[in-house]
Each structure stands twice: as C-alpha cells, then as structure tokens.
Amino acid sequence: MSRPLSHYFIYMGHNSYLTGNQLSSDCSDIPIIKALQRGVRVIELDMWPNSAKDDINILHGRTLTTPVSLIKCLRSIKEYAFVASPYPVIITLEDHLPADLQDKVAKMVLEVFGNILYYPDTDQLKEFPSPEELKGRVILSTKPPKEYLEAKVGTMKEGDADLHLGKGAGDDAAWGKEVPDFHTEIKSAKKLDDDVSEHQ
Hints:
Layout: H1 30-37, E1 42-49, E2 56-58, E3 68-69, H2 70-80, E4 89-95, H3 99-113, E5 138-141, H4 146-153, H5 171-175, H6 182-198
Parallel strand pairs: 1-4, 4-5
Antiparallel strand pairs: 1-2, 2-3
Helix pairs in contact: 1-2, 2-3
Pfam families: PI-PLC-X (PF00388)
EC number: 3.1.4.11
Subcellular location: Cell membrane
C-alpha cells in the first residue's frame, strides 16, 4: 500500500446516509456507520441548508427524504472510521450551501476531526500520498456548489467558455445521476394524468 492513493480502487459509498430509496426514505447516520463497519472508505454527504437557513442538513436534495444533521454524521464518521480498516476515509461533501453555512461546515469539520484531518503540504500536489502514509487520516473532497457556478455563468464574459457547470459529463458514472426535483416530477405526472383524462 505504498503507491499514491490514486493508483488504487477505493470502496466507495454513494448517498451513504440513506436508509432506503432515494426519493422518500429517511436520512440517518446508521447507514454510514454500517458502511464503515463493512470497510467502505468513501462516504458521500449531500449538504443543504435547513428550513431556517441557519444550519446544515444532510439529505437527497429536491426529494421527500427526511434530513439528518451534518454534525451527527461527522461524529459517527469519526467514531467508526477505522474500525474495519486503518486506511484513510474520504468524505465527499456535495455542497449546496451559501458562504455563511460553508464557514459553519469548516468549523464543524475542524472541531470534529482535529489533527486526523489531512492537509496537503502544498497547493500544487504532484501526486497523492500512499494509503500507508494516510493511515488513520480523514480526507475531504468537495468543489464549489453547483448553485455558485450557475450564478457565475450569469456573469461570464467572452473567453470564459471553459467554465463548467457542476459535474462534468463523465461524472455521472462516478457520482451517480442526480434525481430531478421530485415536486416538479409529481406536478408533471399529475398534469399528464389530467391531459389524458380530458382526451378520453
């Protein structure tokens, strides 16, 4: 396990917080705990503002899934991260938050993980450290929120055409497809039913 981390296949969870289906199940830290006990090394958390916009919920966005708090998930990850394997745990944060809540996430992450959180020595990392070097460490993986990138496109000038929205075209295979807005889907289905009824 002495080659760079990117040389290995990694046991990854997708929507690691869901107890059941992606549209209406509960979100919980229990599936995260079970995944870590099985040796999963990548945990995905989708972060959304709560209804009061003052805290962070983990849920499958634009669906009827019930949320779980981010802090509960982080604490469970810390407690169970290395029960099945000493090798690093990567937390993928899918970010749908405004700047003030991003700051709150940063504070939570530092408070929960402290010195086991991995920081690269440089901004220009030529290759990842090895799993051996990263034993007992937690790594965060994230990118600017899709909402931020969409807002930025509205202010693009000529020559900025290389700015991409959210996930790349090839990312669906790695990350899974996003579920469309469930409420919109319900309205569309109802309208289709109404149209069919009118023509019968």
